[in-house]
TrEMBL record:
Residues 460-477 have a biased composition (Acidic residues). SUPFAM superfamilies: Cysteine proteinases. GO terms for cellular component: nucleus; phagophore assembly site. This is Cysteine protease. Keywords: Autophagy, Cytoplasm, Hydrolase, Nucleus, Protease, Protein transport, Thiol protease, Transport. Its main location: nucleus.
């Protein structure tokens, strides 16, 4: 019994009982979302029975779809908190010292995002989350499992099957015999990486202040880059193609942060009109300014810094994030340059974009939706298609439950961003995650060891990841969620 992984069973229970988190931080800790700070609302006092209230005044959280499809239903029943309007929406942050179509006949999620009751406001849901934070959270691009896309050819290598989880291997033999038409069960890290990349491109094309419901033409152009079609430059097809040719990852095999980072770098280099350079650290947490400037300037250092995405594939412990890194990891999502963290659960990736205290808010890619067709630039996606890339439903995870292997992203747009980011990463509480050096051959860089380096951040190796058990959770409405919960011992299909 000493070797039983209690965490695996805990995760299964969490997928059965999946309530939306309440803002129960009694300390009143601020809420952060990719460099923006939001003041928490004061928790509502318990409501006393009152004959003046009818049953219609009460949101019992039963999961009815009547209240979860309309994101504009902000203050239903006129119960907006009187103190909400007094909250400043956000502050800029400166830390410087100055589906599965599968073996069972389950239904896919439709394009509309109605699998769970969404938080449509800070008060109508009863969870006391500030509406500006929810608006910001909902505006992030949420890439999830998709099904029904043009098939991804299987590898002819005899070793390919052994690299897949049992569930994916069975489905590839019984359902997707010609090739993969869904990434359910193996594409979560790719989807998290796509989300991170989409955030960076969203900032560049739409602006950090963009919120849903505006600039639908530009949003459609952005999403077309990630359509589930080989013609899209950042499609899962392109990720898998490059992963197979350059990273040793077979189609249907789970990607790790390192392979995902290399794919993002290569695909961004090919997609010139995206206007994004990508710097991937070769030494885990070490960033070398000379190499960064060469990449950020497109090879002409005198041209200055152009928008560049820094990707750090790192490991902050063995089984869990080592506590000495907790404060520095929390700070990552406070930097204005942050575009989030991909990874964070053992062999089950999420996209982390916010934090409050020791809890991290994330977008969960383990929801299967119909594939997004490719649209040529200038064509606008339908409202249902656009809605499938956003959610107002909060999920969070305590830092002590996070997997230590992750991919961290920062977007540096110009010289000011670079200077501010360097100050921020150099003035953290606890042990630093990122170290910046002038040159790659500096005394404390490649080939030598600085003091304390042995117990610091490890370079990430995708091969260190455990394989997974795939669990299909079928919700009351017939929609399917997939999660990966441990070793590669079995395939479950669980109906609630």
């Amino acid at each position: 019994m000493n070797n039983v992984d209690i965490g695996k069973y805990k995760r299964i229970v969490q997928y059965f009982w999946d309530p939306e988190p309440k803002n129960d931080d009694t300390a009143g800790s601020p809420i952060w979302c990719l460099g923006r700070e939001y003041r928490p609302l004061t928790p509502s006092p318990p409501r006393q029975a009152d004959d003046n209230h009818t049953n219609n005044d009460i949101d019992n959280g039963s999961g009815s779809n009547n209240n979860c499809n309309n994101s504009n239903n902000i203050n239903k029943n006129n119960n907006k908190r009187p103190d909400e309007s007094k909250n400043e929406p956000y502050h800029y942050h400166r830390l410087s010292t100055s589906d599965r179509s599968g073996l069972s006949p389950t239904r896919q999620l439709p394009f509309t995002n109605n699998t769970r009751p969404e938080s449509t406001s800070s008060s109508s849901s009863g969870h006391d989350w500030p509406a500006p934070f929810l608006d910001d959270f909902e505006s992030k691009i949420w890439l999830t499992y998709r099904s029904g896309f043009p098939f991804i050819p299987k590898s002819s290598d005899p070793s390919a099957a052994s690299a897949m989880t049992l569930g994916v291997r069975l489905r590839s033999q019984l359902v997707d015999s010609q090739g993969f038409t869904t990434d359910t069960g193996w594409g979560c890290m790719i989807r998290s990486g796509q989300s991170l990349l989409a955030s960076a491109l969203s900032i560049l094309s739409l602006g950090r202040d963009w919120r849903r419901g505006t600039k639908t033409d530009q949003e459609s152009n952005l999403l077309s880059l990630f359509a589930d079609d080989p013609k899209a430059p950042f499609s899962i097809h392109r990720f898998v193609e490059y992963g197979a040719s350059a990273c040793g990852k077979y189609p249907g095999e789970w990607f790790g942060p390192s392979a995902t980072a290399r794919c993002i770098q290569a695909l961004s280099s090919e997609c010139k009109h995206a206007g994004l350079n990508v710097y991937v650290t070769s030494d885990g947490s070490d960033v070398y300014e000379d190499r960064f400037r060469t990449i950020a300037s497109g090879g002409a250092t005198e041209a200055g810094i152009h928008p560049t995405l820094i990707l750090l594939g790192i490991r902050l412990g063995i089984d869990r994030v080592t506590p000495v890194y907790w404060e520095a990891l929390k700070d990552v999502l406070k930097y204005p340059q942050s575009v989030g963290i991909a990874g964070g659960r053992p062999s089950s990736s999420h996209y982390f974009i916010g934090a409050q205290g020791s809890y991290f808010f994330y977008l969960d890619p383990h929801h299967t939706r119909p594939a997004l067709p490719y649209h040529a630039p200038g064509q606008v996606f339908t409202e249902e298609e656009l809605n499938s890339y956003h959610t107002r439903r909060l999920r969070r995870l305590h830092i002590k439950d996070m997997d230590p292997s992750m991919l961290i992203g920062f977007l540096i747009k110009d010289e000011d961003d670079w200077a501010d980011w360097k100050r921020n990463v150099g003035s953290v509480a606890g042990k630093a995650i990122v170290h910046v050096f002038d040159k790659e051959n500096s005394p404390f860089g490649h080939g030598s060891e600085r003091e304390g380096a042995v117990d610091e951040v490890e370079v990430l190796d995708d091969e260190e990841y455990d394989e997974t058990t795939n669990v299909d959770i079928v919700d009351d409405d017939g929609s399917t969620r997939d999660t990966d919960v441990g070793d590669n011992s079995s395939f479950f299909h669980i109906s609630k």
